[in-house]
Design brief:
With 186 residues, the protein is of the alpha/beta class. 33% of the residues lie in helices and 21% in strands.
Length: 186
């Protein structure tokens, strides 16, 4: 099986737990992860709780085609930056047109909404973002998959989300092995 590569977006105000948990679980599962900084300051990002994270590099939409999945973490400031970035919204549309995975958690589905891809889809988000999401069907579940879209609710669901993504991109067996080594119990 060919190793999958994922682009995880991060911007000032992104939710650090969602970023770090997803990156960690995917790397443990043998999935290549590129942490891409969105916005003006991409050498060091200040997350929603003041934790500073150094992205692997800047978000480059010209490089997006080399990835098998795109991950959009929550955090109000981070998702606002991503909703305002036309190249991020275009990448979301292109990934889904190519049947590649787009995964978003917490407030991240607001970026999918801004990209216009939620019509006819079932998804979840942080309940605080629900009123902003007027397309498709919002459900109150920790993790929801509808085709190539994977969504989740909050930092507390980040592990379940990351393991669901690892199942899709690696295999259920690999995701279970990583979960067992981490003593994760769903």
């Amino acid at each position: 099986m060919t190793k999958k590569n994922v682009c995880v977006l991060i911007a000032d105000g992104s939710e650090e737990m969602e970023v770090v948990i997803v990156v960690d679980v995917l790397r443990r599962a043998g999935i290549g992860v590129f942490l891409a900084g969105v916005g003006e300051e991409t050498r060091m990002v200040t997350t929603s709780r003041g934790v500073r994270i150094a992205p692997d590099g800047a978000w480059d939409p010209a490089e997006a085609t080399r990835f098998d999945a795109l991950v959009i973490p929550g955090g109000i400031g981070g998702t606002q930056a991503m909703r305002q970035d036309e190249s991020v919204k275009q990448a979301v549309r292109e990934f889904l047109q190519a049947d590649k995975v787009v995964a978003a958690l917490c407030a991240g589905p607001t970026v999918l909404h801004a990209a216009g891809v939620l019509a006819g889809k079932t998804y979840t988000s942080n309940p605080g973002s629900r009123e902003e999401l007027t397309a498709g069907t919002w459900v109150d579940r920790p993790v929801v998959r509808d085709g190539s879209i994977l969504t989740s609710q909050a930092p507390g669901t980040a592990f379940a989300f990351a393991f669901a993504l690892a199942e899709i991109l690696a295999s259920p067996e690999i995701a279970q092995q990583v979960a067992a080594k981490m003593l994760y119990r769903a």
